[in-house]
Every structure is written in C-alpha cells, then in structure tokens.
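During the no-cost extension, the postdoctoral fellow (Dr. R.K.) reprocessed legacy sequence entries with the updated structure-token encoder. One reprocessed record is reproduced below for audit purposes.
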Amino acid sequence: MKILHLIDSAGLYGAEVMLLNLVAEQKTSGMDPLILSVGNIGDNEKPLELEAKRLELPIKAIRFNSSFSINIIFQIRKFALANNFNLFHSHGYKFNILLGMTPRRIRGIPVVTTIHGYVHAKKFSKMWLYELLDRLFINRLDKVVVVNSAMLEHQSLNKIDKISKIYNGIKIKPSSFSNEIQKCSFNRDVPKGFRIGAIGRLSPEKGFDVLIKAFKKVSECRADVFLVILGEGSERNRLETMILDLGLKDKVFLCGFVDRAADYISELSLIVIPSYTEGLPIILLESMAERVPVIATSVGGIPEVISDADNGYLVDPGDEVKLAETIMTAINSDSKNRVLTENAYERVRKEFSSLVMHKCYLKLYQSLIK
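Re-encoded structure tokens follow.
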C-alpha cells in the first residue's frame, strides 16, 4: 500500500512528530509511505525534512511559487498517479482546503485527513480564514480523523458522518541526546536545580504567560527553581517583557526552537502544559514515556490521558493561582511523583504507542482502498 502524506510544515512540533512516528511504523510494517513536504520557492530545508532524513524516512521536498494554489493539487495528483499511490493523507488545513476544492472524480485518489485541533484564531485574521475554509471543505474528503473524543463534539465536526478518532502515538523509548553540543549548551545556560520545563510554539493558545505568572509565585517560595521554555513564535517579545517586569531574568529561560525538543525532557524535573486548547499533545505522551511528572490543563484530549492524582496533575486553563499551588505540590512530592510517573508510563505504553496508532490508520486506509 502506497500512502502519500501531504504537509506544509513550519517547524517540528506535535503534528510533525506524529507524522514521523506514523511513517516509521508504516515503513517497518512493509507499507510504502512518502512524505511530500511542500513549501515556497526560496524556503530553506525545513526541520521536518532534516529530521526525516536523520531517521532515514522517505521524504520528498517540493517548492512552488505559491504553496496555496489549486495548481499544486494538479501537479501532486500527476505525481501520485505516475507513482501508483493509493491514498492521500493530509496533515494540515492547506491540503484539506485544496483537496476539498477538487472534485473526487478529478483527484481520483481517496483522501484521509488528520485534524489535530483548532487554535481559535483572531477573527478576520489570515489563520481565522484558513480555519473557516478548512471546516467548509473537510466534509468533501473521504475520511476525517480527530485525535481526541472532545473534537467529535466540535460544532464544525459533529455533523460529519465519516469521522473517526485515532489517538496520537509515540515510540515508547524516545531517543536520548545525540547532539552533545546541544546538551552541554543547555546545561551550561540553565542552572542546576529543580527545572520546570514547557515545550511548544510561543503562541497565545499555549498559555505560557499564565505559566510565567504562576512561576513567579513559586520562585518566591523556592530559590532553587528555574523555568525553561523551548519553542519559538509570535509571543516571544511579550513574554520577554513579562519576564523582565516580574524580575525573573535569571530564573526563566526562553531557549528558542531546538531540534528534537523531546530529547531534553529527561533533563527536566517537571513538565507543564498550560494550554488553553490542545488536540492530543505529543509532548504529553513523550513526557509520560520518559517518566517525568506532568502538570497539564484539562483541555482537548489531555483528560483522556491524564487522570488527576493517578498519573499526573490536572488544572483548569488560565488559573495561575492553582497552577502555582500544583507546581509547589509536585516539587514537594517525590514519593508521590514516582507512583504517578510509573502509572503514566504504563498508560502510554499500552494505549498510546505509535504501533497502536499505525494499526488504527491501516484499518481506516483499508476501508477506502478496494
């Protein structure tokens, strides 16, 4: 079975890691997948492309004058037919829209899309328009996959009859540090102590401003705690200003985008996911697999994975006071954390592995390929 995965990636975050994990399992099982990584002419090699090459996964980079043109679909369709691909798997709104605009009789190949979540973009912004078009056209695709149960009830998705839920999955033994220079730099820049970590795009829906405010309260109680945020994005300037205003310059570190951010989890004492909206965060699963305790907001698919006080800690989004209290509880609960992290590891091993994810997608593909 030949699967053409379509993505226009801007980084190496949850959706990209999920795709790499899925393709790795497909390749191992004897399938013939290919990631088609699309961008604009002049784009440098993308983090997804570099990581796929490092992992020796099949990927082809393709560049266009405009990566949002209906002509792209005709060129991709020609490539897919010439190489006997059985199915398109779309990862992102761009190909959902372009493939949805193309009548099935013309594209000739069935399409599966995975929806990781919506970001609640500002009204009338470019992203708001893309999300609006995405919700309009995904109903024209052959199968729509969501990554948590809550999304099945989303007002834009609950009327789609060809929708399925498949949890994201990870490799249960994440790779350890392979870049010693990065590791040394990280340990040189961030002081030793209790390191609280957060990983993701610096964007409003991730709630890093709430985390920084909560950390301010924590730092007033403990001198040996530090906050490390790995990721890059539009919120950097605002977060930097907040850090200075709160007097946290020597306590909070915005480390920017790093390759293979999951490699740093084992260097952290606690992971916090303070998001306002999520699908099913890969970083959550990776932290559980690394046996690092997790505090996360009860949004999206997170409560389907984390049971409060059983395998992690849950808090409401936006509640900086409760978040600060929960961080202090985690800091002072070594024995409890050992129980939580062992429970978390067993949960992710049994239910959220990349192999389980692959088998679910395979069954879905087979239902479309006669």
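The chain has a mean pLDDT of 90. Residues 231 and 257 are 4 Å apart (CA to CA). The remaining legacy entries will be reprocessed before the final report is submitted.
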